Amino acid sequence: MCWGAHTIGQTDCRFFSYRLYNFTSSGQPDPSINAEFLPQLEALCPKNGDGLKKVALDKDSPAKFDVSFFKNVRDGYGVLESDQRLWEDPATQTEVKNYAGTFRGLLGFRFEFEFPKAMNKLSSIEVKTGTAGEIRKVCSKFNSWFSYHISIKK
After folding, report:
1. Which residue of 70, 115, 130, 147 has the smallest Cβ count within 10 Å?
2. How far is CA 125 from the centre of its chain?
3. Coil, strand or helix: which one is 86?
4. What is the pLDDT of residue 152?
């Protein structure tokens, strides 16, 4: 499994603000967001604010490749819902615990060694070309209805 690329980088408010103000169309915030973190995110991404404003994916060390991302997810500080769900799902929670470690990333898997190995494995996957694949304009969506139907037929 390969997670942790979000230890570096940013996202737009528009990709997660629903978690702050209307999670599952409830008019309430996502209960998995740490209560201390919620006001910080709301200040960065006010309701009806600039959806293009950038927010760091790793609140503690946004420019450092380290295990902080996993500690944040463990503690309810995941910015993206997909990241926070790594902790919520029993199938991935153990992995998050292993990478977060118990003391500065120690006594757990060594993320800085495991991640490059996973990237090398991932690089051996053949690239899909032509109609077998597509480069998505928006990562979470197929580019068109037509490409969606082609992908589910395969």
Report:
1. 130
2. 22
3. helix
4. 44
| C-alpha span between 133 and 45 (Å, rounded) | 34
Token duo for residue 26: 């409830």
Residue 87 corresponds to which tokens in the numbers above? 């902790």
How far is 120 from 116, CA to CA, in rounded Å? 6
Tell me the C-alpha distance between 86 and 74, whole Å: 9
Bridge partners (DSSP) listed for residue 56: 10
User: Residues 50, 74: contact at Cβ < 8 Å?
Assistant: no
Q: What is the pLDDT of residues 13-71, one digit of tens each?
A: 999 999 999 999 999 999 999 999 999 999 999 999 999 999 999 998 888 878 888 89
The per-residue pLDDT for range 75-114, each reduced to its tens digit, is 999 999 999 999 988 888 988 888 887 655 454 457 777 7
Q: How far apart are CA 102 and CA 119, in angstroms?
A: 25
CA distance 93 to 127: 30
Dist. CA 37–CA 58, nearest whole Å:
12
Q: In order of start, what are the domains of the chain with their CATH numbers?
A: 5-123 (1.10.420.10)
User: Is residue 129 very low, low, confident or very high in pLDDT (cuts 50, 70, 90)?
Assistant: confident
